[in-house]
Amino acid sequence: MTYDRLVCANCAAPVSEGRCPVCRANRERLQQESFLSGISPMALIALLAVLVAAVALLAHQTV
Ligand SMILES: [Zn+2]
């Protein structure tokens, strides 16, 4: 998703220019969303599985 043509409701300038706090907040939120959507669900599941395995391994070692 691109936010290049998104116009701010507060200052009526392109959000990508970040002229006012509302612009900057929207820009950061949109960047975070595009970052999160760039991660595939399978990668998240794999990461979770690795974490669970690591926790289980640590739990066994501390006994
Ligand atoms: Zn603005």
Summary tags:
63 residues; binds zinc ion; mainly alpha
Note down, in words, how this protein is organized.
The protein contains 2 helices and no strands. It is 62% helix and 0% strand. The chain is an all-alpha fold and 63 residues long. The model has no long low-confidence stretch (mean pLDDT 86). It binds zinc ion (ZN). Zinc ion is lined by residues 8, 10-11, 13, 19-20, 22-23.
Secondary structure elements and their pairing?
Layout: H1 21-38, H2 41-61
Zinc ion binds next to helix 1.
- What class do helices, strands and sheet pairing give? mainly alpha
Ends apart, CA distance between termini? 49 Å
* Count of separate DSSP helical elements: 2
**Averaging pLDDT over every residue, what do you get?**
86
Order of secondary-structure elements: HH
Low-pLDDT stretches are none
Heterogens: zinc ion
* Whole-angstrom Rg: 20 Å
| Biggest β-sheet description | none
Helix-residue proportion = 55-70%
The fraction of residues in strands falls at: under 5%
Name the overall outline.
elongated
Number of strands: 0
Summed up, what is this model?
This protein is mainly alpha-helical and 63 residues long. It contains two helices and no strands. It is elongated and about 60 Å long.
